[in-house]
Predict the structure.
Amino acid sequence: MLLKASRMAGRQALKAVLIDLSGTLHIEDTAVPGAQDALNRLRQASVAVKFVTNTTKESKRILFERLQRLSFNLQENEIFTSLSAARSLLEQKQHRPLLLVEDSALEDFTGIETSEPNAVVIGLAPDHFNYSTLNKAFRMILNGAPLIAIHKARYYKRKDGLALGPGPFVTGLEYATDCKATVVGKPEKTFFTQALSDLGCSPSEAVMIGDDARDDVGGAQNSGMLGILVRTGKYREGDENKISPSPHLTCDSFPDAVEHILQNLL
Amino acid sequence: MAGRQALKAVLIDLSGTLHIEDTAVPGAQDALNRLRQASVAVKFVTNTTKESKRILFERLQRLSFNLQENEIFTSLSAARSLLEQKQHRPLLLVEDSALEDFTGIETSEPNAVVIGLAPDHFNYSTLNKAFRMILNGAPLIAIHKARYYKRKDGLALGPGPFVTGLEYATDCKATVVGKPEKTFFTQALSDLGCSPSEAVMIGDDARDDVGGAQNSGMLGILVRTGELRNSQLLISSSADPSSFLFHCGVFIRSYISSYFICHNFFSCC
């Protein structure tokens, strides 16, 4: 407790809470029990809320509609995804991407030129993770195309168990080509600072809640925020020991995280 | 070079060095015959995992190379030894054409994952199955970790990227049995009765053939056929950087013949 107190000393009042989606508020089409009420209680406090996700299979609109169907109270513009971050980068560098991204996520790239591609963008795209398509990407990168990873998650939770994320395929291409990918999603620092940028607060005034020790909590804490790890979704026993410093708090689920914030951090 | 013993064995890579798919490197058959006239043992060592020893032998015969099937040592041979030693039951992500080298190994209720060059198996569903087995404790065995290889239509991904991806996903390290592992080279030499300091390796892969051989104490000769790209002229291993770079097969012939005429490593280059 003494260690936590010393880390807490000097922290400013909480102004924003960033909340992961898949695995934290819901697992596929099922909400985490009590999460909707917990979110409402959080909104009654004077903090801004933003939903941040590395989910790359789905556009912002699809994510918003699912959360609405599960009775979560939110606006579409409170959602910030790694697809948003990727699009910004493509526009900034004027790249024409080969998009290894699920069809359902393509709408977030509407308006980006994709003919004669000169960059490779990899998201979570099981349909594209076959030898032939990966080989095409490999040859483009060997010829100088930059490799952009929407994120490098090792795995995610599906109804039938854990499943490979894009990370292993990005890592494989990095190994094959001796190139480093530019990663735009969690746990990159720029992802978190971009997410907070229109809320008018610094990382030291914010906390992140998520189920991925490295990507949610580790990434947030590395950018100066506090991190709360929840034991839902892809969490596995002992994950809290895989990052340093360890999470500010590890708790059972999102409602417990909200209780902790309301009682201790405001 | 000072202190090296006389040469007793030459290890020769196959794909990219003696031939590219079904075409022999020009002059290679004659060069091999001239090498055999010297008093050195010859062994053909390969990380090719798509093909069994028998298929490799038959191809080399069709291309008029002079060899015996038992002079071929592959990473599949090395993998089989490991499976037998540890009594693993493998999920074999290996091309059908290579399965005959695992005949007799029990594969029901697999408790280990073996990955070779297997484009047909490198799809999301199969890789996911392997991923879950490794998360549950199954060891990951890589026949080798080649980054890519040369096909008729250009370079193509090897098993290395997929092994690396599974290592990343599971936070586990694969056991690699093929080149450039030291054990592969020492196993290849073991029945020739000579040490690495009495042997030289010829190959087209700077890291896996030459780097690996030099790390085990052999000399390495890098040839510019097969998969060598312009940028790959430096060997990144920590071995002695005094490797030799030779122009195509033509110069290999003259180097080897001049070596054996003067019995002296130092006079070349």
